[in-house]
Design goal:
Blueprint: H1 2-95, H2 106-120, E1 132-145, E2 151-155, E3 164-168, E4 171-178, H3 181-186, E5 194-203, E6 208-210, E7 213-219, E8 223-229, E9 234-240, E10 258-263, E11 266-271, E12 279-285, E13 292-301, E14 305-311, E15 314-320, E16 327-334, E17 347-349, E18 356-362, E19 367-372, E20 375-385
Antiparallel strand pairs: 1-20, 2-3, 3-4, 4-5, 6-7, 7-8, 8-9, 10-11, 11-12, 12-13, 14-15, 15-16, 16-17, 18-19, 19-20
Coiled coil: 22-74
Family: Belongs to the OLFML3 family.
Main location: secreted
Length: 389
């Protein structure tokens, strides 16, 4: 009997020890689970903080890239302006230099004048191999009617963004920007447009949009061409057009004293002066610096002229034919003398309303963007090659 009691006591002690071991192991497992949970929480928090840090770094890098690009553009603009100031100072020195202490040889002066004249008459060197000329108006599309009787509309002729820009009226400080031609077509008035406010007012109808920049004409005491960046909404450059005594370039649109144009070769200026009052003049401009590269006096009269445009270095002037529904290209001037009035085809416009207040050529689409008595019209052009004379 005593042996049985002793045996039961031993079993009881063993059971108690076993239970204690199990309790200890359970406590250890719970502690390990708590630590694992804590590690998971810390790992999740660290991963979230790393993602936030990465996003902040990416945002800061993008901001730095934008600031770098802005700084580069600013430096380029400063460099261009410095170059222009230097050229203008050189020009002023040549025009207003100190009186010489000795008599200047008249023959030497005549030689210098002759040299300048020959430089102005020098052959124009094309930037592209474009040799197209208009054959006829292939098609016409009346998009809609919006705005006043006179105005100008165009796409950006240098990029494929598809944006459309509207200058409503003959003067103002706001440009209406549409995302697409379709937006303009379905817009109730200008409801789908974005207003671009410019720091100085535009005047006339001779403006263009080229490579994300609006080139517009500002008329005060002098004629100034202003270059406005449509992306950062700021003026990047401006230049006074170096010609005095301007007169309206088109007899039927006296509000326009200078008409800017873009073709495959770049930026052009169509203008007129009192020195050559009866006829239209043409100048090739550098779209980056706004410098004048070359100038020509044409034989195209201003009288009854509505508008003009340039294609592959050829100026086409459109005149009112005194017929209620027709206008036509009646004078051409080619800077390389490859096309003459006698060789140019008669190009008639199927015009229906008043007369064109503006015609803007898009070299990428070979379309003319026309404004006619408040109607926005597209003309599809049929082209052919110029013939060497």
């Amino acid at each position: 009997m005593r042996g049985l009691v002793f045996l039961l006591a031993l079993v009881h002690v063993a059971t108690a020890q076993h239970q204690a071991l199990i309790d200890y192991l359970e406590r250890r497992l719970l502690a390990i689970e708590d630590r694992i949970s804590l590690w998971q929480e810390q790992t999740t928090r660290y991963a979230s903080e790393l993602r936030e840090l990465k996003q902040q770094m990416v945002s800061q890098l993008e901001s730095l890239d934008k600031e770098k690009e802005t700084l580069r553009m600013t430096l380029d603009g400063v460099g261009t302006r410095v170059d222009r100031v230097e050229r203008e100072l050189d020009y002023l020195e040549t025009q207003n230099g100190a009186q010489p202490c000795v008599d200047v040889d008249d023959k030497l002066i005549e030689q210098q004048v002759t040299l300048v004249q020959e430089k102005q008459k020098a052959k124009y060197f094309k930037l592209t191999d474009c040799s197209d000329m208009i054959s006829s108006i292939k098609a016409m599309k009346i998009l809609k009617r919006v705005g006043g009787a006179k105005g100008m509309w165009t796409k950006d002729t240098g990029v494929t963004s598809g944006k459309v820009y509207v200058f409503n009226g003959t003067a103002g400080d706001t440009i209406n920007e549409f995302a697409t031609v379709q937006d303009l077509a379905r817009s109730l008035g200008f409801s789908l447009s974005t207003d671009l406010k410019i720091p100085s007012s535009w005047k006339g109808l001779g403006h263009v949009v080229y490579n994300n920049h609006v080139y517009y004409v500002n008329q005060a005491e002098e004629i100034t061409v202003v270059k406005f960046d449509t992306r950062n909404k700021s003026v990047t450059d401006s230049a006074v057009f170096p010609v005095q005594d301007h007169v309206p370039v088109y007899g039927l649109n006296p509000e326009t004293v200078m008409d800017l144009a873009v073709d495959e070769e770049g930026l052009w200026a169509i203008y007129a002066t009192r020195q050559n009052e009866r006829h239209i003049s043409l100048a090739k401009m550098d779209s980056n610096s706004l410098d004048i590269e070359q100038m020509w006096d044409t034989n195209c009269p201003r009288e009854n002229a509505e508008a003009a445009f340039v294609i592959c270095g050829t100026l086409y002037v459109v005149y009112n034919t005194q017929q209620p529904s027709r206008s036509r290209v009646q004078c051409v001037f080619d800077v390389n003398d490859l096309v003459t009035n006698e060789e140019a085809p008669l190009v008639y416009f199927p015009k229906r309303y008043g007369f064109h207040s503006s015609l803007k050529y898009n070299p990428q689409e070979q379309l003319l963007y026309a404004w006619d008595d408040g109607y926005q019209i597209l003309y599809k052009l049929s082209m052919k090659k110029k013939l060497e004379i």
